[in-house]
From TrEMBL:
<dbReference type="Pfam" id="PF07331">
    <property type="entry name" value="TctB"/>
</dbReference>
<feature type="domain" description="DUF1468">
    <location>
        <begin position="18"/>
        <end position="171"/>
    </location>
</feature>
<protein>
    <submittedName>
        <fullName>Tripartite tricarboxylate transporter TctB family protein</fullName>
    </submittedName>
</protein>
<feature type="transmembrane region" description="Helical">
    <location>
        <begin position="51"/>
        <end position="70"/>
    </location>
</feature>
<feature type="transmembrane region" description="Helical">
    <location>
        <begin position="145"/>
        <end position="171"/>
    </location>
</feature>
<keyword id="KW-0472">Membrane</keyword>
<feature type="transmembrane region" description="Helical">
    <location>
        <begin position="12"/>
        <end position="30"/>
    </location>
</feature>
<dbReference type="InterPro" id="IPR009936">
    <property type="entry name" value="DUF1468"/>
</dbReference>
<keyword id="KW-1133">Transmembrane helix</keyword>
<feature type="transmembrane region" description="Helical">
    <location>
        <begin position="100"/>
        <end position="133"/>
    </location>
</feature>
<keyword id="KW-0812">Transmembrane</keyword>
Length: 172
């Protein structure tokens, strides 16, 4: 039982998340690459076909899972041993349920915002507050969190627009 409680600490959490993301990515990649209907047009002609986006997303997921797995392994290997086995387990962090509810609510509002403002502006306005909040929670300070959050949100919105509208030709 004590091992499960310690799994919530950073190296254990990184290992668990890395294994989960890696497993999901590998299963997804196997499913996509063995699906003949998806892979028929992949790499043939100017249209990459419907397999391109899942392959890109699953590849990034696999890379991220491997990075988390390596980070967890390194953290586990270089963490000093516990001083006392009878020390109390750290108290869990406060609940994040309100943040998750706010994210779900903003996801519900996003399609309406896209129809009013267009994809580029709505996606930037959706991502900016969340990225600013995440940076601020890291403890980087308000000004830096604001600058980084807005800059990354703008880059993310532009990248999404380029991939979906320009490269894939999806009309929004």
């Amino acid at each position: 039982m004590r091992f499960l409680l310690r799994l919530g600490r950073t190296p254990g959490r990184d290992l668990a998340c890395g294994l989960l993301f890696g497993a999901v990515a590998i299963v997804g990649l196997i499913e996509v690459t063995t699906n003949a209907r998806l892979m028929d047009t992949f790499g043939r002609g100017p249209d990459p076909g419907p397999a391109l986006l899942p392959l890109i997303v699953l590849s990034f997921l696999l890379i991220g899972g491997a990075a988390l797995l390596l980070k967890g392994l390194a953290g586990w290997a270089f963490t000093p041993p516990e001083a006392d086995e009878n020390d109390p387990i750290e108290t869990p962090p406060p609940s994040q349920h309100l943040h998750a509810a706010a994210l779900l609510a903003s996801l519900v509002v996003l399609p309406v915002a896209i129809s009013w403002l267009g994809f580029l502006l709505a996606s930037a306005l959706f991502a900016a507050p969340w990225l600013v909040w995440l940076e601020y929670r890291r403890g980087v300070g308000r000004r830096r969190a604001l600058l980084l959050g807005v800059a990354v949100a703008a880059l993310l919105a532009i990248a999404l627009h380029v991939v979906f509208v320009t490269l894939l030709g999806i009309a929004i």
